[in-house]
Amino acid sequence: MRFASFFTRGFQRHPSCSKILLLCTLSGGGLLSYSESQSESITGPPASNTNSDVPAKKKVVVLGTGWGGTSFLKDLNASLYDVQVVSPCNYFAFTPLLPSVTCGTVEARSIVEPVRNMVKKRKGDIKFWEAECLKIDHANKTVLCRSNIGNNLVGSGEFSLEYDYLVVAIGAQVNTFNTPGVKEHCHFLKEVEDAQKIRRAVIDCFEKAVLPSLSDEERRTNLHFVVVGGGPTGVEFAAELHDHFQEDLVNLYPSVKDFVKITVIQSGDHILNTFDERISLFAEEKFGRDGIKVQTGCRVLSVDDKNITMKAKSTGEICSVPHGLVIWSTGIATRPVVRDFMEQIGQGKRHVLATNEWLRVKGCESVYAIGDCSSIDQQKIMDDISAIFEAADKDKSGTLTVAELKDVLDDIIVRYPQFELYLKSKHILDLSTLWKDSEGNYREEIDIEGFKMALSHMDSQMKSLPATAQVASQQGEYLARCFNRMHQCEEHPEGPRRFKGSGRHTFLPFRYKHFGQFAPLGGEQAAAELPGDWVAMGHSTQWLWYSVYASKQVSWRTRMLVISDWTRRFIFGRDSSRI
Fold first, then answer.
1. SS3 576
2. pTM here?
3. What is the DSSP letter of 384?
């Protein structure tokens, strides 16, 4: 305390000393944040302007504290807006490590960061309300919310918030495909609470199986773990569970080690079908060696408390398999509150909330959507082909040369990314290639019909972005930059030219950059698919996974906790206590 008081008095007398401390401790994250926070608290916020002519701050309401919402809040200059955050969870969870939580490789509290810890470090005042959004009233620009905190506390839990800008980042829910019995008898792996329930359920299965009153058939049923869905989450959970059994539980429950069985059911032809084919085959071969049964081409028809019924697509055969625990990991669906909002704005027939390339909800000037709850509806080149031709044809000759197209090429590439993707996919380095006729002869000029023919296949390169943490995080960062520079860019637009209309777009459109994806496969082995068609598999890739996931933690606190959990597991193994 005496040491801290000494520095505090020094900062008060000489405010520049905080800068000296900052330079001297640049490599120390803890001292760096200390010097910043002390400097801010001493200098204090700027004196408020009491001039009534100063416009009030715009109200920004953020729904959700997942990857999209948290990334938005971390990069937003909150001093420019009146920011309010609504979420039923008062923490951010590092969801890629949820499968590790299910088996005790990582503790649940090691991957969560309280929202209030994050917002208090931001510039400006951010208000957080732990509540669930029940309804978005688009006409009146309000959101109706309700607290989920226990009813034994006094006071009303319902309230409404007005907004000038609304950021919808509430994610999605598990898609059961209306399969009978799934909600009642399956475990999901979407939230931290889900992972904790699975961890207890796994131990329950083993504790029940070792009871002396059970027959061998009953033990075999209780220790049959079924994973429905061969995507990254399902595969990683199966691998974690196998490691947990081989490294820990086999020593604690040796009498039932021969009854344990893990099955992965996948409706497609391969597991990890969003990865490179080499990774899918490697994962299937490794699971085969580990004794994890992979059933591809099967669709689950129903689930009850004792059996899971499925149908083989190739033969049409229907069979029922007894189970002890079923994990359902088959994709996502739109939440009811988002579905209701979509009905209000005329998107009721869509599967997901549609936004434009600037993440603004179509049909709503003041509403933005990021993350799993939305999908970017990329503008098609063929819808604007006449406007592009007219803008490029500066001499109004009715024909277009390659040189004329080059004059607007930069704007076309920014506005329509599928144009550049098409050129790369066809290895087209010279634009004059597009001017060739059907017989391969080069033409100096082409008319509007020839231009349509040249660009007719480019929209085939349009693809929806995956519902991943990586996409949501980048969208949140992008949207925060737009909000931070909104006033500046409204006066000096930075986006591409408007081919339909005049002037330029206010901002550059969102552009996703893929940094690769990992698939841990157990046994200290993992597979990675990185940009440039680079694929890696094996033990070294697992260590790359460790380093990347540690570096991606949102705070030094969670980073140290996760690393210490990994170290503890290497030394002492996983904890099998049912807590």
1. coil
2. 0.88
3. S
